[in-house]
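fyi for ur records
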Amino acid sequence: MAIIRELSRSGFIGELKKCCPNNFSDSGMDRLYEYQEELSKHLWCVLDFDPVGVCCELWEYSDIEEYNEENGTEYEDAQDVAGFACMIDDKAFLAHI
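which gave:
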């Protein structure tokens, strides 16, 4: 048996802030909620929310330069990583680490 609790946007963000208060900006957490919601609808399933897993698997980058520096890559533009990243705005994005 599983107990399922549906989280609102504010509940999702609150749980992330409790678990990893410095990992994501408010914009990043908001976009991550939207992404999880989109994914759930696309897959037609309920997603398990694991805040520790999210904090361990995803990192927020303020721009492509930060990403390149930390990952030894040479992308020219944040749009170059859009296929495997979750864009927050024109520059900032979330990516798996």
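The mean pLDDT is 91. thats all i got for now
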